[in-house]
Design goal:
With 1165 residues, the chain is α+β, with helices and mostly antiparallel strands. Among the domains are: 79 residues, Alpha-Beta Plaits; 79 residues, Alpha-Beta Plaits; 167 residues; 117 residues, Calcium-transporting ATPase, cytoplasmic transduction domain A (Distorted Sandwich), CATH 2.70.150; 133 residues, HAD superfamily/HAD-like (Rossmann fold, 3-Layer(aba) Sandwich), CATH 3.40.50; 158 residues, Calcium-transporting ATPase, cytoplasmic domain N, CATH 3.40.1110.10. Helices cover 47% and strands 20% of the residues. It contains 41 helices and 40 strands. Helix 23 packs antiparallel against helix 39 and helix 39 packs antiparallel against helix 40. The longest helix has 40 residues. The radius of gyration is 39 Å and the shape is elongated.
């Protein structure tokens, strides 16, 4: 057998050995290694070895059939091939069979950084987190990015080289924790620079278009946005050195380019460009088999890179390939291997995910605790009979009472001796989970490099307190028992039954307390483990939304005909590739992100976006893994993203990473729990010293001493044990992470991703001001539409000519905006084309001889009157148009050209303005007076305001959050939208550049409360001096690249899920649905979560503040009342469990906004 053991001072070690597994394990443990897991792999022995008979018996007819069909076996070339293979194996890196590579090729060593993900077992409270963080920071100060997640039992580090991953693993194990390396992936440190600049000389959409076309050719520009309204541009470039080149490029085009700000952002992205597969291959019997498999993979050429070749001793092959259907897919690769020999069986090996490893650790821990709990409960029954019933409940005349009081050795009673034998397995076996962890924690304190302040002032965890409590009770009882066994003399009493005098032994021990202490501690630890596992289900439940199998279909299609299914088969989702067609039946979930190519149906997206109603999807629309087909028909869809890159995977990754971002309140808890154990230890020792001093000093009445043997020293020890046992840092340490963990999962359920983790929730609970971007946030975004049209009729023109005249104006308006890239121009052009172009089409589209952009005002076009009068309809009726110039623009432009609007029409246009619509006016001159224009057409263009916006803003104001608008749009439009949605006009900041948005956020953070006070009058500024000096917590919600600086500057950045990538990366929260009601849910949920965190802290602190003094004996003078160590242990267990259950109660929370959303949805339906 080939034993593969993971040991603490090596990443992966394989030993081909003959001794027993027990001997090997013992040798490794004696050498100082912790063996976490042992995998046994079957190795085909060389037939020339002494155990050839076992090989023949094992393989039987399979090997015989292989030898009969293998020419290599018959020609006797095995030995030569085996030598060659062993030589090749010595030169090749070896990977573990779980899919994680630990030795890499030289090319990978050139990568800047790696992300190491660890699964850490044995963590019970925040003290454990502090210990791991402290030991890693002490030994590896160069690791700047290191985080530990108690709930997920994981840790993550960004490191400079791969060997450092193993060193961190060793250090964590040396600190007394189980640690497995789950994932080690290269990350690319992406540095980008956002350049915000003012661009002078922009006069029309053509100018913007020319810059767009030029900048699009620059490879170093990742994203850019040019705004004609604000004469500005935002550019994301990969190197600051390109700033000068960008400036020169735009200035060479004739524009002024003034840089306002250059801001750097750094992100680390995991590289997953190609697909890596690890195959397990069985059925190989000779050295030619792995050679043929490796050779079959090499035949794919450069499309496949073999990372770890297969061999007889290592029946796994790992390779990386770039899918290229249909020739290079995982199915074609497996098919080629299967064609070599029908005896080869291949299976894809999946490395366990972090959640699966955490679940495994939790199950192992629960199994270990359960076995010990069962033993303890079985022992607790006779302990209760002997130690409680016999001694406390039975009368002295009872025969059983007298029987257990009989001395066995000296004055040691039978009861003491029986309880000793009952407590011993409990102490050494059941309580070993506490002893081992405590010993490892203390031992790690004395490693080289640990500062003395940590050794004496920041040591220990809950395990140490439990260990000290049970150990003091056991060993003190053991010493008393030995002393009792050496004492001479009898204590007798007269039996009431008349059987004469009988001697009695001493019974003053705490052996029964050891049993009951351990039982209650184990019960508490079990309940806590189950509760934390339940609280940690949020990520694992998301990951389980993906099915294991898919219906792969082969389709044939013809132009303008539906797809026909030629072939269909059920296969594992591991065998899918991008571009495959799959069939999604009713009730099934897509195995990957897809685009529907046939049929239509409804999908339940509640698990991903929180949408309570089924969402219809038809041809060309995208569907996601994790949703469910709830319609009545199947759909055929094309796979566009596999596991690892789907929306579901991104959600899981964001939730997982968010849970590593700790809230400030958690850091306070960490500091508190770091000093908790030393303080409790000091209190326990002082308690014992004070009581023993009072006892021997004569300050205590004699009737206080209610034990038979041991004096004041033994009597005082019970208070000391109770203090050790009742103190519980777990409740303090779990108060924040459990609530935040449940809260982040609950937020994801409602369609809110907490990218900023606990810190984001804490800031979200304190928000004073919420700033909205206008376009795409308060409005629905996308392409604006023409909503209204007003034609200024001329009563002097007959109706026939009027109709032709109207349509020609529409076509000329279309031609003016023909090359426009401005949203309003595009909206007008599309409106004209869709409504009238099919009926009236100008014979010659070059009627406009010149189009001029008037900066900030509009367009002017000169008309070729001769060509215009050749219009088909005009020729038919022998008419002329009667004008030579046309202008298009705003009211200022019309007034400058004497194209005034009469009062009746002006009233209609003003009504449009009040509704927040943009106005476009058309005017033409006349042959008689070319310089005078007359307004002939008016259009209103709007980006529709979100229907829920006004209700959301009203509710925000009611719950005490100010609402502001910060936009680059013009003042009138911005204020009009503000009026519609309910934002005070004085809270509108318009005409700002992207960098100016960030400055306005900073200004609001400093002066937000002052502006709030000023809103009610100057007198309030004086009356609210304390309010005005307080810094405001400002949130910003937006979706565009121009919102990224303000999202970063805000205390809480919120990005709409349909926004740009740079906006998403800058935000702390991401709304998966473009629904502003999620903002209300976000703030209410944040407040709910942090109210629960505060409650948990209050409960944990009150428990310790009250419980520890009671255990120390402050109430003993009142009726000799004390807290027995047994009941102290039960109280301790219930304390931490109650905190976890309190956090789990958050799952019962249902925001009131969900009812409103459902009502709105039903209303629309």
């Amino acid at each position: 057998m080939n034993y593969v053991g993971k040991v603490s001072n090596a990443v992966d070690t394989s030993l081909k050995i003959l001794p027993s597994l027990k001997v090997v394990s013992g040798a490794l443990y004696s050498a100082g290694f912790d063996i976490e897991s042992i995998n046994t792999e079957e190795v085909i022995p060389n037939p020339r070895k002494v155990y050839r008979w076992w090989s023949l018996l094992l393989h039987g007819s399979h090997k015989h059939n292989h030898q009969m069909n293998c020419s290599e076996c018959r020609t006797g070339l095995q030995e030569e091939k085996e030598k060659k293979r062993q030589k090749e194996e010595s030169l090749n890196p070896v990977s573990s069979n779980d899919g994680t590579i630990f030795v890499t090729s030289g090319d990978e060593l050139h990568l800047d950084q790696f992300r190491a993900l660890y699964s850490v077992g044995g963590m019970t409270c925040a003290s454990c987190v502090n210990s791991i963080t402290a030991v890693v920071n002490e030994h590896f100060p160069s690791v700047s990015d290191f985080a530990v997640d108690l709930m997920n039992k994981s840790a993550m580090a960004i490191i400079e080289n791969k060997p450092l991953a193993s060193k961190i693993q060793v250090i964590i194990r040396d600190a007394g924790f189980n640690c497995d390396l789950v994932e080690l992936l290269p990350v690319s440190t992406v540095k980008s620079y956002t350049v915000t600049a003012s661009i002078g000389g922009l006069t029309c959409a053509a100018c913007v278009n020319s810059i767009n076309n030029s900048i699009a050719k620059l490879s170093y520009v990742k994203e850019f946005n040019i705004s004609l309204l604000t004469n500005s541009g935002t550019f994301v470039i990969d190197d600051e050195a390109h700033t000068r080149s960008l400036k020169e490029r735009i200035e060479d085009m004739g524009f002024d380019f003034i840089i306002n700000e250059v801001k750097q952002s750094v992100s680390a992205n995991v590289n997953k460009q190609s697909r890596k597969v690890n195959l397990s291959i069985s059925g190989m019997f000779c050295t030619e088999c792995p050679e043929q498999i490796n050779e079959s993979l090499r035949l794919f050429g450069d499309a496949i890179v073999i990372d770890d070749p297969v061999s007889l001793s290592h029946p796994y092959v790992e390779f990386t390939y770039v899918p290229s259907p249909p020739t290079v897919t995982i199915r074609s690769i497996l098919k080629r291997i299967g064609e070599i020999s029908p005896q080869f069986n291949t299976s894809i090996i999946h490395p366990l995910s972090l959640e699966e490893l955490s679940a495994q650790m939790a199950r192992r821990e629960q199994k270990r605790l359960l076995s010990r709990l069962i033993v303890t409960v079985l022992i607790a029954v006779p302990t209760f009979v002997i130690g409680v019933i016999a001694m406390a409940l039975l009368p002295k005349s009872n025969h059983f009472y007298q029987l257990v009081r009989v001395p066995l050795f000296g004055k040691m009673s039978r009861m003491t001796f029986s309880l000793f034998w009952l407590a011993t397995p409990v102490y050494f076996y059941s309580a070993s989970v506490f002893h081992k962890k405590a010993f490892q924690e203390v031992r790690s304190l004395w490693n080289v490099g640990v500062p003395w302040t940590r050794r004496f002032f920041r040591f220990g965890s809950m395990n140490l307190l439990m260990c000290l409590g049970t150990s003091i009770a056991y060993w003190a009882s053991f010493v008393l028992m030995l002393i009792e066994s050496t004492l001479k003399g009898d204590i007798t009493h007269e039996k009431t039954s008349g059987m004469g005098m009988m001697s009695e032994g001493f019974t003053t021990t705490y052996f029964d307390s050891v049993v009951f202490l351990t039982m209650f501690l184990l019960i508490g630890r079990m309940l806590e483990s189950f509760s934390k596992t339940k609280a940690a289900d949020s990520v694992s439940m998301l990951a389980k939304l993906r099915p294991n199998e898919a219906h792969l279909v082969e389709v044939a299609s013809e132009v303008n005909k539906p797809l026909d299914i030629i072939n269909e088969k059920l296969l594992s989702i591991d065998l899918l590739e991008v571009g495959d067609y799959i069939k999604i039946l009713p009730g099934m979930s897509p195995p990957a992100d897809c685009i529907i190519v046939s049929n239509a149906t409804f999908f339940d997206e509640s698990a991903l976006t929180g949408e309570s109603r089924p969402v219809p999807h038809k041809f060309g629309e995208q569907i996601f893994a994790g949703t469910i087909n709830v319609g009545k028909s199947y759909v055929i869809a094309k796979v566009i993203a596999l596991e690892g890159s789907s929306m579901l995977d991104q959600i899981v990754e964001i939730v997982r990473q968010g849970q590593l971002h700790r809230a400030p309140i958690e850091r306070v808890a960490d500091k508190l729990t770091g000093y908790f154990v030393p303080i409790v230890t000091l209190i326990a020792i002082l308690t014992w010293i004070i009581w023993i001093s009072l006892g021997y000093g004569g300050a205590l009445p004699e009737h206080y001493l209610d034990i038979e043997f041991g004096g004041w020293a033994m009597w005082s020890l019970e208070f000391c044990i109770a203090v050790f046992v009742i103190a519980c840092p777990c409740g303090i340490g779990l108060a924040a992470p459990t609530a935040l963990f449940v809260g982040s999962g609950l937020a994801a359920k409602f369609g809110i991703l907490a990218q900023g983790g606990g810190e984001a929730f804490q800031e979200g609970s304190r928000v004073d001001i919420l700033c909205f971007d206008k376009t795409g946030t308060l409005t629905e975004g996308g392409e604006p539409k023409v909503q209204d049209e007003l034609y200024f009729k001329n009563d002097e023109i007959e109706s026939t000519r009027e109709d032709i005249y109207y349509h020609i104006l529409l076509e000329l308006s279309r031609d003016l905006e023909l090359n426009s890239t401005h949203p309003l121009g595009i909206a007008l052009r599309d409106y004209c084309e869709s409504k009238f172009l099919t009926q009236y089409l100008l014979d010659n589209k070059h009627i406009l001889t010149k189009v001029e952009e008037i900066s900030g005002k509009g367009l002017k076009g000169d008309i070729d009157a001769i060509k215009l009068n050749q219009h088909t309809k005009l020729r038919e009726l022998n008419l002329t148009a009667g004008f030579t110039s046309i202008i298009l623009g705003n009211e200022r432009f019309m007034n400058e050209n004497s194209a005034f609007i009469d009062s009746s029409h002006e009233q209609i246009i003003n009504e449009w303005k009040r509704e927040g619509k943009s106005i476009i006016l058309i005017a033409v001159n006349s042959d008689e007076s070319p310089s005078n224009y007359k307004t002939v057409l008016a259009f209103s263009v709007t980006d529709r305001i979100r229907p829920e916006a006004s209700e959301v803003i009203k509710t925000l104001n009611e719950i005490g959050i100010q609402t502001w608008m910060i936009t680059g749009d013009n003042k009138m439009s911005a204020q009009a939208v503000a009026k519609v949605v309910g934002i005070p006009v004085e809270n509108v900041i318009s005409d700002v550049l992207p960098n100016e948005k960030a400055e306005k956020i900073r200004w609001l953070q400093k002066n937000g409360h002052a502006t709030q006070a000023a809103g009610d009058g100057k007198s309030n500024i004086v009356l609210n001096k304390k309010i005005t000096t307080k810094r405001s917590i400002v949130a910003m919600i937006g979706d565009g690249i121009n919102d990224a600086p303000s999202l970063t500057m805000a205390d809480v950045g919120i990005a709409m899920g349909n926004g740009s990538d740079i906006a998403l990366s800058s935000a702390k929260f991401i709304l998966l649905k473009p629904d502003l009601r999620l903002v209300l849910i976000l703030f209410r949920l944040s407040r709910k979560i942090f109210n629960r965190v505060k409650f948990n802290f209050f409960w944990a602190l009150i428990y310790n503040t009250i419980g520890i003094p009671i255990a120390a004996g402050v109430i003993y003078p009142y009726n000799n009342s004390r807290l027995d160590p047994v009941w102290a242990s039960l109280a301790m267990a219930l304390s931490s469990v109650s905190v976890v259950l309190s956090s789990l109660a958050l799952r019962l929370y249902k925001p009131t906004e969900l009812d409103y959303i459902e009502e709105m949805t039903e209303g629309k339906a």
